[in-house]
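Troubleshooting: if your tokenizer reports a length mismatch, compare against these two reference records.
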Amino acid sequence: MNEYTWIQSNWYALGNLLAQFAFLAAGIWFARKILRTMRASQEQFGALLKLSMSGPVAERPSTSVIAERTLNGASPYWLTPSEIPPVSAPEPQVNGPGRLVVARHKLVVWLQTPMSTGEVAPWRRVVRWLQAPVRS
């Protein structure tokens, strides 16, 4: 009976403690998830970098070599050469203005726009409405 009265008198502190533990558990779960995602991203980037540095692959490894490599402790996020899509160089666009011409045009248009309009800003209207005396 004594424990029940202690919980009854300290229910707010007990609830606060439980809420803090819940936030701590959620934070740890979220941090682990982010770290896993970052590790997978780094491993994929490393695989792509290694592939781009080595140049074209003359001979693809057999499926037994790939299976052996995944069983030997490689990450499940590792991309094999057969899974990587071929990359082609983008072709330059012949028609259309250049980047500098477009940037210069946007700058001229921005400079020609008026700095302010004749209207009162909406937030100023709200402030004036709040400061006005109440009409009865």
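Reference record two:
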Amino acid sequence: MTLSTDNPDIQPLLPRLAASDAGVRRIALMALADLGDPDSLPWLVQAVASDPSASVRAEAAALLEAWDEPEVVHALCVALTDAEPAVAQAAAHSLAQLKSHEAGRVLLPWAEHPVAFVRASALRALRELRLPESAAPALLALADTDPGIRREAVGILGWLRHAPALQAIALRLREDPDLEVRRAAAGALGFASTDDVQRALLAGLQDPAWAVREEAATTLGKVGDLGSATALTQALADEYWQVRLRAARALGRLKLHAAQPALITLLGHSISNLRKEAALALGELGDQAAMTALRGAAEDQDPEVRKAVRIALAQLQS
């Protein structure tokens, strides 16, 4: 990229861009970015690559977040390797704002960089782009020794709805030692319903980490079937109310009628969010046998619960 010195908007900034004071250069870069002129990009790219001040390099990396030009993306990828963490973090943040597939193709090789932070940052940026070509490096990254990278890889494959990865993601849910990877895997399986997915999600309902159980219950609400009824009903008694809430929601979405007695019991729970979800689920089930219990909850002390009861009663009466 060629530095523009004849642009009349940039010319007044040139002395400050060359100043010995890092603070002056930093303010000049901000003024340059405010122009919104493509001619300013070479100056920002130069600053992120070679300014002697880490604060200036970090500012330049942050200011480049609105640009998807290949030269800019490459400069930000290089900045991920900067020795100063503030610069690398600013570059990672800007890369995560990319919007174009063209920019994603520049990112692809960096998803296999030897430095874990660089790999994770590249994968995180690729996830948002939903670039089909990112499936290949994401599949490789599922076996990475770094759990943050495995988590980003799962996210990419889930967002892409990449069917060939279903078995590998299910394996991450069942066996990954990192709970955040298992949680991400439970969420990523929501785009398909296969026997392997069902088995993995049901196993996820027994995970030692409540956050994984919560995510598994949520995803079963999207892709589950009648075979999920027993496990989800049992999850209504989970020691964590967050899991119980998601299980109640899933049972309603799937219209699993066997859970109705347990849902009616939840109408008397001390946690109002659970009472609300139980009421909504009973309305989804559509069984008028729940009318008496719902009418008994119509004067609940929580207005959100009363609203949920009204909605459920209206569904049963329609």
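Descriptive notes for reference record two:
- The CA atoms of residues 214 and 243 lie 4 Å apart.
- The chain has a mean pLDDT of 95.
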